[in-house]
Amino acid sequence: MKKQALALAALALVAGVSQAQSVTMYGLIDAALQTTDGFANGSGGAARKNSVISGGIQGSRYGFKGSEDLGGGLKAVFDLENQFAVDTGANKSASLAFSRKADVGFTGDFGRVTVGRHTIFSYDVQSDLDPVQFANFNPLGNSGDAAVVNFANYQVVNARRDNSIKYTYEQNGITAGLFYGFGEVAGSLKASSTMGARLGYSADGFNVQGSYDQTKDANGSNNANGLTLGGSYTLGDITGYLGYVEVKNNFQAAGGFGQKNSVWWLGARYQATKELALHAGYYDQKQSGTTNKAGVATPAGDGKAQTFSLLADYSFSKRTDVYGALQYTSLKDGMIAAMSPSGVSSSVTTAMVGLRTKF
Questions:
Q1: 59: part of which helix (H) or strand (E)?
Q2: Considering only CA atoms, which of 299, 296, 301, 298 is closest in space to residue 331?
Q3: For residues 200 and 233, what is the distance between their CA atoms, to the nearest angstrom?
Q4: Per residue in 248-275, pLDDT tens?
Q5: CA-wise closest residue to 55 among 28, 37, 76, 80
Q6: What are the domain boundaries of the chain?
Q7: What pTM was estimated for this model as a whole?
Q8: What is the CATH code of the structural domain delimited by 25-358?
Q9: 19 pLDDT band (50/70/90 cuts)?
Q10: What is the β-pairing status of strands 160-171 and 101-108?
């Protein structure tokens, strides 16, 4: 009888531990057939290129996340996420085991605080406010494999930071956050460091968000500053979007980029049926104050780009969907050399059909 009681107690203890701790493997695989014009044809002109790509909308990825209940509403959490190319099987990064995310920390009524490798707040806010699912083929999409004409290249150095602390709070419609990335340069707290903040509010169909990020160069003397502002409004089956992002980059090492780069956008999402969602977006980009790597002004690099994006997304289930996308970009002045695949095309058109499945 005592042995049976001890066995039952042991089973109860094991069950309690398994309930208190949870680990989940997750991910998605996104592959598409893409055709894009404007590529170099080998004789100084432009030609069309047909490809199988990974990440038409989202970069293919896998990850592990978990939590342990520590009592009193406090949990220990972690998240590890890596990106790969489904068309080749290769990792997105040759040197990083978890290129998209690697963090550990705590959550509770106070919010979530983690240390590790994180996305900056510019990335987070833009992903919330992009009308075309923050797709990789769009100017704002900056985490995937379908590089056509991406404003991502002009973000605050890059969208992720190592050696960082990230705090976020979401409750009662309020979204807020603070971010700090250590430069880890001996003798300097400024060199290569990053800081950021986020604030937003959502209620009654309205969603307004803003963020600010700053990164210092290796000497701690020059800054790259990013400001993102925008909002959305949902009425029935339709959501409208409006936003603006501006990046001022004083890094001399960022030769070929403008000291000021901006894009404003507007668009809409229409849930036509339970399965079918239609997205449309317009993006207006501008680059000015272009310099070379020595910091010398190169006005010929200044320019503009206008992008129109359409996306039809049909869901077979909560986990699997198919999509078709069409994008047209008009390039002017310095944007032609900087952003067209051939470096000579004043316009770029891309079309794709893809399949995305989640697990």
A1: none
A2: 301
A3: 14
A4: 887 755 555 567 888 999 999 999 999 9
A5: 28
A6: 25-358
A7: 0.88
A8: 2.40.160.10
A9: low
A10: unpaired
